[in-house]
Amino acid sequence: MTPDTRELALRFLNPERRFDRQYYYYARSKLATDPLYGGVSRALADGPNLPILDIGCGIGILLHWLRAQHHDAAYIGTDFDARKIEQAQQALARSGLANARFEVGDAARGLPPHSGHVCILDVLQFLPDAAAQNALLDQMIERLAPGGKLIIRTGLNDGSSRAKITVTVDRLSKLWGWMRALPQHYPELAQLEAKFAEHRLTTEFTPFYGKTPFNNWLVVAQKPKD
Ligand SMILES: C[S@@+](CC[C@H](N)C(=O)[O-])C[C@H]1O[C@@H](n2cnc3c(N)ncnc32)[C@H](O)[C@@H]1O
Measured in angstroms, how far is the CA atom of residue 196 from the centroid of ligand 1? Predict the structure, then answer.
């Protein structure tokens, strides 16, 4: 069943700062229009119940969607933007959800200890180049438990007009002040395939455009169970 997206988004509204509604409107629009969280939830439902590390979690919308879909595994969200982590922590406190935490962390400088599933949603493009992305992919794959899934949403650098629109909107997000950094490098399909093959992961690449003009893909790479 689809969660009540308004009720979830209200957790991002600070009752003492009711005029400041940007996080509420952002959460509401993402929850209502972006197929991402439903896609992640379906990918997780089809695997073992393991702790989740959400890298570049932003304000933590994924956690609220997952819990509303009855995923009760432990959750850690990290992001290098301290403002977003503060919002995520406040929304978590308002929600009363248990077994979850948010912390500031720069994925380019290392990841917290973890064993389970790993999500990285709309983040890879902020790393400077393929080498940095590959180093982070190695670290994320090290943190997969047997049967654990690495769930990535990313634009792919394939020269399509969708790819060009994705880059332009990312740049505008920086100009509007929503994003702290400009996107730097979109991965190529062959780069991801080679990395997953090196680690013997089974993989699934699904175009994930929804009703958007973006070149988004949902990539699920699973570690063997034994
Ligand atoms: C487009 S937002 C996606 C937020 C969240 N994953 C979601 O889908 O709801 C990208 C996020 O990646 C974070 N980010 C970018 N580079 C990062 C890095 N090196 N380490 C941690 N977070 C990073 C940004 O601060 C931002 O919150």
Answer: 22
